[in-house]
Amino acid sequence: MSSTDISINRDVHHAHEEHDHHHDQNFFEKYVFSLDHKVIAKQFLFMGIFWAFVGGFLSVLFRLQLGWPEATFSFLEPILGGWVENGKLNPEFYLALVTMHGTIMVFFVLTAGLSGTFSNFLIPLQVGARDMASGFMNMLSFWIFFISSVIMFFSLFLETGPAAGGWTVYPPLSALPEAIQGSGDGMTMWLISMALFIVSQLLGGVNYISTVINLRTKGMSMTKLPLTIWAFLLTAILGLLAFPVLFSAALLLIFDRSFGTSFFLSDIYIAGQALTNTGGSAILFQHLFWFLGHPEVYIVIMPAMGLVSEVIATNSRKPIFGYRAMIGSLFGISVLSFVVWAHHMFVTGMNPFLGSVFMFLTLIIAVPSAVKVFNWLATLWRGNIRFTAAMMFAIGFVSLFISGGLTGIILGNSALDIQLHDTYFVVAHFHLVMGAAAFFGMFCGVYHWFPKMFGRMMDEKLGFVHFWFTFISVYLVFMPMHYIGIAGFPRRYYNWTGFEAFNIFTDMNTFISIAAILGFTAQFIFLFNFIYSIFRGRRATENPWHSNTLEWTTPVLPGHGNWPGEIPTVYRWPYDYSKPGSAEDYIPQTVPFSQTQSSNLPNEKDFE
Amino acid sequence: MANFPIEEQSSRSGVHPLKFSLWLIIISIIMMFAAFTSAYIVRREEGNWLEFDLPNILLINTVIIAFSSVSMQLAYNSAKQNSLGRLKLMLMVTLGLGIAFLIGQWYGWADLVQNNIYFGGTGSNPSGSFLYVLTGVHGFHLITGLVFVLMVLLSSLKYKVHSKNMLRIQLCTVYWHFLGGLWLYLYIFLRINH
């Protein structure tokens, strides 16, 4: 589907290019339909932040229900209208809330918001390119994402509510409008929105890959790339391979819902009446979905890993420990991510032997993940650490990744997973390891690259306050969830007070909800800091963090084309921090070895 | 500042970035059809699968699209040799064969309906629906390919396609061959799994 877009519009693209160089750009060309990767990155960032607040707000709503199941929520009526009946949240609306929270956070914030912002912003700047391979495709990618966002946002206000079948939209629940209100128009809009979203991601991903492969500056070999770029490249490759499969699944689901086919439906009775659909397989959808779904969690976490690697090395004033091992582990994770999808499906009646195969493959992922954690810790070890706000979030990321990753080893075991499946243990696991961790990676990126994006610094003190509130409340929310999960507390239940076994957890749930509300409130500190700093922040210098990578050699506010003169040539890897014999504790990539004879290693003498 | 058209940046891999992007797009389309065909196999193994004969016209269509690939290649070669008359002719032939293929596919669908193989509704079976989806999604991509061929044809009428300006027709040729190859794969796949 995306195929013609570039081809048709290549002419248009040419026209725009020429146009740009002859005239001053008007407001629309500069800020709205911009072809400049930096503007597009900011557009993705603003959309991501907007969506994060929407998604967070939805989670506060259902945490209210879970924390105070007996309370009346009449005060929510002005916002939610008919969804609050006699002070009680509508149960189907509760399901819609968790569905939309998941969809928004996974796709719109942590995929589009994270990759869209930082891949767009950093790839051309760090590889030394004037812009993306195709600026027009890049712009198209954002605006298709925007349309997709509008549709998804609009579906929140439908009378029958947005999609409510879980973010995984398993049929038959999602396929039959008779099953649940949310499977009506809300689900249709969900599918349309996601189909557009996939097109947008593919357009973006194609651009990221071809920019990294084709448009590196002179001297920038693949092994001189910053780890951020490696992470973005592999993320884009995962997206390119995984998203079309979700598109196929969504297309078949659309046919099942609207054209009467039976790909996923068979032998279903509603109110005693058999549906005409025969021959479908609901498990088939799960296979297709998780073939995307599992790589998707790495699409979410790998950009964060890249950002964190860069920030930790810069702020420890040390070379990253095990640069090649970091790339190798990213490769390992990428390959393995495609052969583990069925660990989401241990309870579907899968052949136990097949289950054990997927179990082993899943557990192998612990190896590259542990390599990465080890290397981050070894980079921090005896480093000359500067605790900037970005660094705090980077270290927080490592902490969350460890805590969440450990429970992954438990859930990867099919025998244990069958017990823990669909409990809050799973919720706690993935929120720590991919939800909160990826958010921390994103915050780390925003604090660190804010000076290059807006030419001003964010307030460090507010950053610290934001960090500590967020960090503490994340643990306060998700640690107790493990306990109620082990006790068998099922996820997605609207009301659990009817079950004697779960009543003892009322206090725990109230505690979690309070922590969640605290965590959400803390994000307004960030929002204030972010907006305030754009206009009133301290002015930044070209290279405020004394970092080595190419983006810091651009002017404070790089214009279209990024470097006013020639694109700089790269001579060395990006991690020459605190090199013995060097006057400064950092040597940018653009400094040739001939200028640093005092610090060159024996094997670098040849390059002088 | 920034008076460097992005197009002029030197490419590290020796391949034009847009051509590289096209290959990436082709990979994503391959993944989509890999999903459909693997779903087809998985679903077929589960039983309750209606067996029926493929419409005979599909074979004719396969031949047509193979010929269109040949004419596309000839068009490309003509552009390389600057024989612009033959270029236009061959592009028109490709366009015509592509449209003929689509019409043929449409008749294939009509054939299926006559044999009571429906896309959806009562009495439809996933085996039939899959055939419609595979041909339909391929047909959609073929339409995008036709639009591309048309664009190249229009620019060749303005003498913008020649040996010094090969990028456009090169991309178009790659894409068109891919669509032909994709159909060949689908046809063989359906033949084997029927």
Detail the topology: elements first, then pairings:
The complex is a heterodimer of chains A (608) and B (194).
Chain A: H1 3-22, H2 27-32, H3 37-67, H4 77-80, E1 84-85, E2 88-89, H5 91-127, H6 135-155, H7 185-214, H8 227-258, E3 269-270, E4 273-274, H9 282-316, H10 323-337, H11 352-364, H12 366-380, H13 389-412, H14 414-420, H15 424-454, H16 460-486, H17 500-503, H18 506-536
Antiparallel strand pairs in A: 1-2, 3-4
Helix pairs in contact in A: 3-5, 3-6, 3-18, 5-6, 5-7, 5-8, 5-9, 5-15, 6-7, 7-8, 8-9, 8-10, 9-10, 9-13, 9-15, 10-12, 12-13, 13-15, 13-16, 15-16, 16-18
Chain B: H1 17-45, H2 57-80, H3 84-114, H4 126-157, H5 167-192
Helix pairs in contact in B: 1-4, 1-5, 2-3, 2-5, 3-4, 4-5
Domain Heme-copper oxidase subunit III family profile (chain B): 1-194
Family (chain B): Belongs to the cytochrome c oxidase subunit 3 family.
Pfam family, one (chain B): COX3
Throw out a few tags for this protein:
heterodimer, A: 608 residues, mainly alpha, Cytochrome C Oxidase, Chain A, two-stranded antiparallel sheet, 18 helices, 4 strands, 63% helix, 1% strand, disordered N terminus, B: 194 residues, Four Helix Bundle (Hemerythrin (Met), subunit A), elongated, Cyt_c_oxidase_su3-like_sf (chain B), Cyt_c_oxidase_su3_a-hlx (chain B), transmembrane (chain B), transmembrane helix (chain B), Cytochrome c oxidase subunit 3 (chain B)
